[in-house]
Amino acid sequence: MNRPVLFLFCGQPGSGKTTQAVSLAKTKAIPYYDYDTLVQPFLQAIEREYGVGGGRLAFYAKWRTPSYGTFWAPVLENLKLGISAVVTAPLTRETRDPGFFSALKAQLGADFKVVSIYLAPSYKLHLQMLTKRGSYRDEEILADYDAYKRTHVVDKPCWDADVNEILAFDDYEELSRSLERLLSEVI
Questions:
Q1: Residue 80 belongs to what domain range?
Q2: Is the CA virtual torsion 83, 84, 89, 90 positive or negative?
Q3: DSSP string, 15-74
Q4: Which of 61, 104, 109, 148 is 20 to 30 A away from residue 90, measured at CA?
Q5: CATH number for position 28
Q6: Which long-range contacts (CB under 8 A, 24 or more apart) does 54-59 make?
Q7: Is the separation of the CB atoms in 93 and 39 below 8 Å?
Q8: Mean pLDDT across the chain, nearest whole number?
Q9: In Å, how far from its chain's centre is CA 38?
């Protein structure tokens, strides 16, 4: 069995993770897992039942650990079976953990290659992307976008991925070229 690959698209909300990951998954016929798809239904149910006292950002911070547990479970099961995966998730804390993937591999008892792709659109493009997306979850971010950007600085992930790439871009064509180049090197 070949060593499976975890293609991980991460970055701030509205940075284009889903669009790029879906394209890769479809082109290469690799199973795709999206954090929002896997955890949003139960988070929305909790939000409806109990509210989001303290604001939506605080609510998501409170439910972060169980949400990510739910997200990682099917991904890791498939990697253990030798099946590659394309995933999207913000993973803002995890990108700062130098031993993040070593810990996942140890927990899983299996080896897999990790290709981390952190998407970083320019300030102007990111604001346009969030506005166009129109998600209720972005309302607090858009209400004071400058404050959000000051507190969410883009740093290259320091985790222990086999390939660790940050793709900064000002337009979609630039992103497509950079991603195509990167994937041609790793696939």
A1: 5-186
A2: positive
A3: SSHHHHHHHHHHHHT--EEEHHHHHHHHHHHHHHHH--TT-HHHHHHHTHHHHHHHHHHH
A4: 109
A5: 3.40.50.300
A6: 55/140, 56/137, 56/139, 56/140, 57/140
A7: no
A8: 88
A9: 12
Instruction: Please name the residue that has the structure tokens 């547990």.
Output: 69
pLDDT in tens, 17-32: 999 999 999 999 999 9
d(CA 182, CA 163): 9
List CB contacts of 47: < 8 A, sequence separation 6 or more. Answer: 59
CA distance 39 to 16: 19
* Total number of domains in the chain: 1
Q: What is the tally of helices (H) and strands (E) in the chain? A: 9, 5
Q: Token pair for residue 157?
A: 């992930």
Per-residue pLDDT reduced to its tens digit, 58-110: 888 888 899 999 999 999 999 999 999 999 998 888 888 999 999 989 988 88
- Which pLDDT score, from 0 to 100, does residue 154 have? 62
Closest to 72 in 3D by CA, of 125, 108, 117: 108
